Amino acid sequence: QIFQPLHTLRNAEKELLPGYHLFEWQPALKNVSSSWDVGIIDGLSGWTSSVDDVPADTIARRFRYDVALVSALKDLEEDIMEGLRERGLDDSTCTSGFTVVVKESCDGMGDVSEKHGSGPAVPEKAVRFSFTIMSISIRAEGEEDAITIFQEQKPNSELSCRPLCLMFVDESDHETLTAILGPVVAERKAMLESRLILSVGGLLRSFRFFFRGTGYDEKMVREMEGLEASGSTYVCTLCDSTRAEASQNMVLHSITRCHGENLERYEIWRTNPFSESADELRDRVKGVSAKPFMETQPTLD
């Protein structure tokens, strides 16, 4: 494998990069530019206004989300075919009805400052957004239940986790994070309303995607949902408990916080329709303080 002419290795490398495989979305993705050079793109691609403090071209690099997912599925091509064979499914009839569950993760990478900084002035913290394909299932014609044909055996391993976006930004910098992840979210939203047509095992097959934001730690969930930081009196990211209430009641909690509700509360916080004092207003919105921008599903990992 190793002792091959350079051009052969180059071609092998190209296959591993997103953007190599042909695919189609039906219907075509909305809000996703078809003209971007597919491959590694500027992290702010798809965002119109730039982030002022730092030259935009230095701040982030990413893959286009749909292209990265295609590349991940092609990596799993043999597993998908093997899964169909093991379940005794005739692969020529299994061309539609595939469902892919994707786990999203995002976390700060700490201090990455240059020791002898001569490059452009960029924040000295970095954040990585990545995803893992958790499972692929298919619903056969006339069958009620979906049959799982691929399940990631090591879902928390570095090996199954695929980087989508690397950015120079502090994870507490809500505005810059919004500017960079905004386009990623737009692409994800577009993919939810469409299906991917991709050749797997020599036949065109159609895939639908479901995304679960279960790879965020508490700090990032608070950041993504625009909640007050971890020192807040509102201790929980899923319900409205205060510290005092939580210490009294350790059992009866219902999940009351969802992205939509957080957005509504943010609007109340922003407009203060009842002309309340800061304390009353804060009590009304239960610790929502900055604009939430990414939907996180309250699912346990």
Automatic annotation (TrEMBL):
Domain V(D)J recombination-activating protein 1 pre-RNase H: 24-96
Coiled coil: none
GO cellular component: DNA recombinase complex; endodeoxyribonuclease complex; nucleus
Domain V(D)J recombination-activating protein 1 DNA-binding: 1-23
A family per Pfam: RAG1_RNase_H
GO biological processes: adaptive immune response; B cell differentiation; chromatin organization; T cell differentiation in thymus; V(D)J recombination
InterPro entries assigned to the protein according to its UniProt record, in alphabetical order: RAG1 (IPR024627), RAG1_DNA-bd (IPR058552), RAG1_pre-RNase_H (IPR058553), RAG1_RNase_H (IPR058554), RAG1_ZnC2 (IPR058555)
Domain (V(D)J recombination-activating protein 1 ZnC2) ranges: 234-296
Single GO MF descriptor: double-stranded DNA endonuclease activity
Domain V(D)J recombination-activating protein 1 RNase H: 100-232
Descriptive protein name: Recombination activating protein 1
Organism of origin: Misgurnus mohoity
